[in-house]
Amino acid sequence: MIHAAFLIPLLPLAGFALLAPLGRRIGNPIAGWIATFAVGGSFIVTILVFIGLFQQSPAHSQFTQSWFTWFDVGHLNVNAGLLIDPLSMTMATFITGISTLIHLYSIGYMEHDKDFSRFFIYLNLFVFSMLMLVLADNFVLSFLGWEGVGVCSYFLIAFWFDRDDAASAGKKAMIFNRIGDAGFLIGIFLIFQRTGSVQYTTVFSRLGHVGTASLVGIALMLFLGAVGKSAQIPLFPWLADAMAGPTPVSALIHAATMVTAGVYLMCRINPILHLAPDAAHVIAWIGVATAFIGATSACAQTDIKKVLAYSTVSQLGYMFLAVGSGAYVAAIFLMLTHAFYKALLFLGAGSVIHAMEEDQDIKNMGGLAKLMPITGLTFLVGWLSIAGVPPFSGFWSKGDVLENAWALTPALWAIGAATAFLTAYYMGREYFLVFLGERRWVEAHPEATEPGSAQYTSRGVHPHDASWKMSLPLVVLAVLALFGGFVNLPFHPNLVFLERWLNPVVGATVRQTHFSVGQLWAFSLADAGLALAGVGVAAAVWRRATDRPALEPRFLFMAWFIDWTEDHLVARTGSAFSSFTSSVIEARVVDGAVNGVASLVRGTGDRLRKVQTGYVRTYAMGLVAGVVMLVAYLLVRVGS
Amino acid sequence: MTVHASWYLTLAAVLFTIGAVGLLVRRNVLVMFMCVELMLNAANLTFVTFARELNDIGGQVAVFFVLVVAAAEVVVGLGIIVAIFRRKVGATADDAHILKG
Q: Does residue B62 lie within any of the structural domains?
């Protein structure tokens, strides 16, 4: 069954190829169903390949499927081919699975949009790119997927491009990613220069001949790519702005797929990181700093999606903390569970926004749990999962990350633990403000208070759960978020399914941690205690109040002014420099040179034309004078 | 007794000077034209003189070329003069200055 793997990326590509020319004619909602089935089919194939791979012995669980030579220049030989191994299949499974659910959700969410079919064209292309990224068997093909994901994120974030904020958010995502992509490219160049190959397996087998300094350089360059794609310090502001896109896009790009690409890349190059521990330390510290800054920023946001956006930044920081600690299994584990609960939270937020008539301010919500029972309940599951309350999935995965951080250095654990507490707190704040308390939307939308008026039926807000197309994904994701942690239980060596499954890929390089049973219990109790403390504090603070300026300082609302600083330091300086060159260098120097030459020629001509008097005698005089001078010259020369 | 070459050359120089000065000072197009012919023939006289002095037939050959060119020039030049006089009777050379820059 493994040889069917080529269908995994090909099905979404086929969906794209069908919808791109014909989507508008096929129309709403059939175009959406075609896209959904394309990705759903890909999911089924992935499951079959996964089972096929599962039946192989762990020692032979790596397959390459070569399609054709993509290009062959000198010593550079790049194949288009797939690498089927436990890591890539784990990624492919949850990417296709969650993408299918999000496609289904989008049919409901986008049903009134005039560009319905265009949305699904982008979604299918996006899923194809993401699958190429994770399934490629060499860096260059992965880079193709990497760029495809970037360009689709631009299309999707700027989907409502007639809105200024969406258009500029798309541009911002593109530019921030571009900075990282430059790093990725340089990393690939370095790898080729040092090892003579770009094929993953070949590169990793030749690492013994490469110096440590080169390896650190390669790892950091690739990490720069991951920083851009996975929104780490300092390239994270694009993710918060990207919330201007439709909510299913936020769920797809910022929960399950695109932003995890950086983590995947770091796990993929684990043999390099293993030999470059300095780079791993940098990754761990950047990760934990991002986790902390993201979590604190999320505490002060008022937009329902911005809270989730900063939460994603924070969770990605955790994943890089795990990667930097050498705990690749923990990183993948957290990525997996995060994909479940963050997709769930985003889709839940989408339902709420849908019900609130596009109002996204959590201060204008409240009391929705009773009116939207499915959304409220599933959102609760998502909250408790991300908070890390046992036995929800986040508890197991986050615990795994924090243990490994402790093994590297307790300082990392301390910051990570503080972030864990904040995570429980800010999601609690969001839950209480949106789903419990008073129905503040009644005042925010006063027209809703007059039942019977014409506005009540046409424009008024009357929250309700959405259709089954939007509710079903929520329920499925809630179940996954609830039980997803059971793929890697720490109690017994036979229960760490994920670790044993990924062992062929990362087993040789993963950092071995040895904790006694007592220590494991201590970690678990600490994690659970922090999560419950966060939930408790959130309940105490936000159950009744809706406005606590002391807890929502502007400093955190602006995300530590990092975006602001970058904006003023880099963007505005760049703009000022550009306008300087355009108004001074361009207008004066370049144009000045061109215009100067022109007016010089013109002035000279103006003066010289006086010579042309039109009188024959003048010309004759000229001739004679010339002759006289010639003769005089000859006479003088001959005479001397 | 032979006439010394310097006489011929002096005569040619005088003729040429008369032609050149005439071309400069006269306004009548026809007279100017005749002055040009005068200069050409002064040159011819020089050619012939040197041909005889140096025993070189080349000088005489050059004279024929000059005569042919002069004949052709007369054709074109008189054509232009006639055209000018058709437009404006009694025009001088200074009246035709429309090519002023």
A: yes
Per-residue pLDDT of A196-246, as tens digits, reads 889 998 999 998 888 889 999 999 999 999 999 998 988 888 888 888 888
DSSP lists the bridge partners of residue A199 as A138
Prediction pTM value = 0.80
Q: Kindly state the helix (H) or strand (E) to which residue A58 belongs, with its residue range.
A: none
The verdict on residue B48 lying in a domain is yes
On whether residue B50 sits in a domain, the answer given is yes
Q: Do A612 and B20 touch (CB under 8 A)?
A: no
Q: Measured between alpha carbons, how far is B95 from A501 in angstroms, rounded to an integer?
A: 107
Q: What is the pLDDT of residue A461?
A: 66
| Cα–Cα dist A394/A481, whole Å | 8
Q: Please count the CA atoms within 13 angstroms of the CA of B33 that sit on its side-chain side.
A: 17
Residue recorded with tokens 């993710």: A239
- Write phi, then psi, for A507 (nearest 5 degrees): -55, -35
Domain of B37 in residue numbering reads as 26-89
> Total domain count for chain B?
1
Q: Is residue B21 part of a domain?
A: no
Of B32, B96, B101, the CB nearest to A611: B101
How do residues A364-419 score in pLDDT, each as one tens digit? 888 888 888 889 999 999 999 999 888 889 898 988 889 888 888 889 999 999 99
Look at residue A129 in the predicted model and tell me its pLDDT.
94
| Shortest alpha-carbon distance between residue B29 and chain A (Å) | 10
pLDDT on residue A456: 39
Q: Could you give the 3-state DSSP secondary structure of residue A34? A: helix
For chain A, the structural domain boundaries read 569-639
Is A609 in Cβ contact with B24 (below 8 Å)? no
Name the β-bridge partners of A72: A77
Coil/strand/helix, residue A316: helix
